[in-house]
Every structure is written in C-alpha cells, then in structure tokens.
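Exercise 7. Given the encoded structure of a 212-residue chain, write a plausible sequence.
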C-alpha cells in the first residue's frame, strides 16, 4: 500500500540534494558520487526509508542507495534524511526493471527486498521483484560474493520466490525461515515500518538470503 499523493512531492523530490537525478551518468563510477570506494548496498522498494536509514547509520563504511518508484513515499524518506548528517545514503526515484541502465556488472555488493508488492494476479507475476527476470538482473549487478536478502509477510509470494530461486539453477538459499521473529536469524534484524506493524499483529515474517 502506498501513501496518497502529496501535493508538491514531485517538485520537492526534483529539488532534493539527497536524490540522484541523473543516475545513468554514474554507471560504473558510483564511487565518484560517494567520494570513496566503499561497497554499495541497495534497497529496492524502500518505502519511507526506516530500514535503509538505520543501516546507513550503523554502517558508515558502506554506501547505500534507496530505490523507490512512488513520489509520495519517497517524500517521507527525504524528510527523514534531512534530519540526519549521513553522507553514505542517497535515493533514487526509479523503476527497478531498468537497473542495468544505471549499474555496471558486479557493481553492487548487496540487495535488500523488503515487503515488496506481491502482484497477486498470475498475469502480473513477471513484475514481482523475485521473478526470474529480476533474478537475472540481480545476477548481473551483484559482485561474485554479493547476496540478496528478501523479507515478506506474504506466504504465496515467498513460496513463489523460493520456487524461482530453486528453478534458476544459479542461486543458493543460504538462510531461510518462515517465521523470522521466532528463529535463529532474528539477532541483528532491522525492521521496516511494515514489519513493525505486521509483527504487532502477530503475522509471521518470511525471510531468505540467497547467493550464487
């Protein structure tokens, strides 16, 4: 679910110094934006940014890029960003299906997918961020030792995602749980806004980590 349209959000985003407005210019040279050669981690569909802000605060030696399609949601993430002094976090208003236009092969160390849109209708399966097409994109972007972390409360989406990983013949499931908050993988977990709400409602959170 996304926020209602916020009047002036597009203009606000267009003028924000925390949003990358010409990402294609950084393909293969993202270190010039961050002025260092630290690893780059991205979150696709970051929502209001609670998760990636926390990561950036806790890991100053990692560069983070939060990617979000919807202006009304990105607006809130920028508001949060303006209250911090982080220099390792930027945002993109961008459609993930074009990621190979802005990132070079092996340029990303880690990808986070948190509570992605499940696109429940079968005809929309290819839009799911864990579909075979997107897994192929991630395979191109990730460094050899890179990995993907995926969390969702949607069991059908999770089962679909696990099947796609297994059928790919390329990815390995390093960690998997169908109830994160009652599992060995909970220590160190950073919650998103959605996750906090779902856990309070007693919904189990599914999570996997995959690599090649």
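Solution.
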């Amino acid at each position: 679910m996304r926020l209602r349209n916020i009047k002036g959000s597009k203009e606000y985003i267009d003028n924000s110094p925390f949003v990358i407005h010409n990402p294609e210019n950084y393909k293969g040279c993202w270190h010039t934006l961050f002025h260092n050669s630290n690893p780059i981690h991205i979150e696709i569909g970051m929502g209001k940014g609670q998760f990636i802000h926390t990561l950036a605060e806790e890991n100053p030696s990692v560069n983070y890029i939060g990617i979000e399609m919807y202006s009304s949601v990105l607006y809130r993430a920028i508001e949060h960003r303006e209250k911090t002094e982080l220099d390792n976090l930027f945002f993109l208003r961008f459609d993930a299906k074009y990621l190979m236009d802005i990132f070079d092969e092996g340029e990303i160390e880690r990808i986070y997918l948190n509570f992605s849109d499940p696109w429940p209708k079968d005809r929309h399966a290819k839009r799911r961020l864990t579909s075979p097409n997107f897994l192929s994109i991630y395979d191109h972007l990730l460094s050899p030792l890179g990995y993907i972390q995926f969390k969702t409360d949607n069991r059908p989406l999770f089962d679909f995602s696990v099947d796609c990983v297994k059928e790919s013949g390329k990815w390995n499931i390093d960690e998997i749980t169908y109830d994160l908050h009652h599992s060995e993988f909970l220590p160190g977990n950073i919650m998103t806004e959605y996750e906090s709400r779902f856990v309070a409602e007693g919904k189990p959170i599914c999570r996997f980590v995959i690599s090649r």
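Remark. The first strand starts at residue 40 and ends at 44. Students should compare their own answers with the one above.
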